[in-house]
Amino acid sequence: MDRIRIVGGHKLHGAIPISGAKNAALPLMIASLLTEDTLTLENVPRLADVIQLQRILGNHGVDITVQGKQPGDVANRGATLHISAARIVDTTAPYDLVSRMRASFWVFGPLVARMGEAKVSMPGGCAIGTRPVDLLIMALERLGAEIEIEGGYVIARARKGLRGAEIVFPKVTVGGTHTALMAATLARGTTVIENAAREPEIVDVGECLVKMGAKISGLGTSRIVVEGVSRLGGARHSVLPDRIETGTYAMAAAMTGGDVLLEGARPELLQAALDVLVQAGAEVSSTNEGIRIARNGAGIAPVEVTTQPFPGFPTDLQAQLMALMTRAKGTSHITETIFENRFMHVQELARLGAHIHLDGETATIEGVERLKGAPVMATDLRASVSLVIAALAAEGETMVNRVYHLDRGFERLEEKLSGCGAEISRISG
Ligand code: EPZ
Asked: Measured from the CB, is residue 154 less than 6 Å from ligand 1?
């Protein structure tokens, strides 16, 4: 199993290109199930999760060609995928595939909408909490699907197609909103989604669906209205920049000090996180090329942050912010309201010398003068990268084990950080 070795203490200086967003690329690939025509996606990050989803879609009969770089392409731009679901050969998503990646459950909505049936394994628990799918099932039920749960599978049938309905989510859910939105595009009549998620990745998927011929209004608001159409066609769409990758490298730059340009990043995608970084003492400015983060001389100030659905501070940056606050001059509080068990990084940060106390959903972090390198291990993607951030500022060597978590969501992480002066390398085997 690969490991990552980091020797801390180097300031970051330079530029980091921001990749396409994993959490938009995955549902965009799934949206291909809604049409017989080819969906072309550009700027798709080359990540383990994307490759895994290619396998899952392949199982349904979807044909995917990955196009190499074109002459004149911007360096480091992601791959272009031509995805054709002309013939869906299987409407079952089996346990061994769904259990490896939760987002693969999202094939459920498009399969029922286009094929009138789907049998998808319940995803089960995961490292960041229980993460049920009851609201995704509720959305399809509202759209007229008959649902049965049998042998760990959710089976949905809508032989005569789905019909528009009002779907009111009792809590904001990204996966629930993706499912309702995609399924409603092919339902008969009008669907109103209330308390919809406003995450930029939902807007990106919605904009792609519009290019495919869907009739959608209210994207980016908590009330989305969809007029169903009888068929969708092909389209070409470029995946938006990854706001979580952007925020992660912004925290890394704030942690080590230095000056980094996050190329292609868009500030409006993570304003809440940038505001917190300013409070913490970083200088943040946006330019035509992206976002610049600098911290020169000034120490890190403590902050009080609660995770919220977009436009609030994202849960997917909570672990990274906690790593940054381990070196603040004072005490910070971070409250996690989205996932109840998303604190697995706390024990590992403590191995590097952090002082963190957990009380229910709130972590109290007392900043320390110095962190010291140690072997660490992580249980999920964002937790792993928080250890990388802490290690960049720790004295001596840190070995991060179970790197496959990082490979699920961060494209060329070592290359991007070492390009800015970090001492970081992968040890294979
Ligand atoms: C998406 O997960 C993201 N995944 C997560 O990113 C992200 O942390 C999360 O949204 C919140 O922003 C992808 O986009 C692939 P939710 P999702 O449904 O859709 C509860 C990462 O690191 N809930 O918005 O699964 C749920 O338990 C990942 O990239 C129900 O109760 O999250 C949670 O408390 C991790 N019933 C809350 O809603 C349901 O049926 C929000 O979850 C569905 C969700």
From this structure: no
pLDDT tens for 210-221 read 999 999 999 999
For residues 159 and 249, state if they share a domain: no
Give the CATH number of the domain where residue 354 resides.
3.65.10.10
Phi, psi torsion values for 147, nearest 5 degrees: -115, 140
**Quick check: 67 pLDDT over 90?**
no
Protein residue with least CA distance to atom 41, ligand 1: 173
What global pTM score does this model have? 0.97
Domain that holds residue 45: 22-231
User: Is residue 222 located within the same domain as residue 304?
Assistant: no
Cα atoms in the Cβ-side hemisphere of radius 13 Å centred on 184? 27
Nearest CA to ligand 1 atom 8: 316
Is 200 strand, coil or helix?
helix
Instruction: List the strands of the sheet with 304-306, edge to edge.
Output: 304-306, 331-335, 362-366, 355-359
Query: Is the domain of 61 the same as that of 203?
Result: yes
Residue 201 CA to ligand 1 center (angstroms) comes to 12
Cα torsion 397, 400, 406, 407: sign: positive
